[in-house]
Amino acid sequence: MRSPYRPRRILIAGATGTIGSAILPSLAGFGVPMRVLLHHRDLAVPLAGPPSLDDPGPRPTIEVARGDLARPESIRGEAQSAGVRIFVLIGYTGTVQERDDTSRPVNEETLPEGRYESENVRLKYETEAMVLESNRSGGMTTMVVSPGVLAQPGASTILGGFVELFVSGELPFRVLNEVWLATSDGADVGRGVASAIALGNGGRRYFLTGDCRRLQEIYGLLSEISGVPEPRRKLPDLLLEELGLLTPVLPRGSFLRRLVLPRELVLHMKRLAPVENARTRAELGLKPTPLRSTLTAMIGTEGDLARRRASI
Description:
single chain, 9 strands, NAD(P)-dependent_oxidoreduct, 12 helices, alpha/beta, three-stranded mixed beta sheet
């Protein structure tokens, strides 16, 4: 059995903001310098702390490189000039999930269809394809490690905002009942990326997802855990799409802005197929956190936030 790979330097892209905060502490366990690629417009720089409170070791050196990372060729140039052995791109399961037929599950070996409602998802797909094609025997080892919908207690995420609205009783209607959500607990993502690096298998796509449920099932779980009843009314998908056209003109932080999703996101979500990731679980030893446990932690955090907001 091959010994785990110990990198001397880590190059990582796609790990800014909330997802970076979930991933980088796990990578700090390698104790080596990290180079983080940020898009030139990104303001938040993810910081890696020690792997745990019980291990107050020194923080690794984090070098930040900025560039036009919306273009796959820019990422390729940064990767080639960094002189690293392993390059990890934090992808997104939606690049494979989005397809015409949403009745059949997809897995790590399923080929993307390459037709997307969202320009951001299309660019993500092109970058993932470039990274996987750049894997070379004897050269740079590349891999794509993809979470789904991030479920991170206390973090600013789309799902977190949705949970906050639900437990505060401010969600007036159910939306997108039939949509599949492949959720990823933030702690699982961090451990999964570290395991993929240690394994060192190039040219691989990994799906770091746990439970994949229809949104209607998640409403039920939230109601069971929080005691808040599900909204009785359902907003038709077509009306939700039309309301999504308003998002560019709605004031940031307004109540309606919190209720409405951008139209391209709604169209993207409606085309998501369910996810299976047996290979990822077997190769990386991934044991995802149960969705109920993650939602319980989120309700504790988001519920406290909602109660504070209601008291203002």
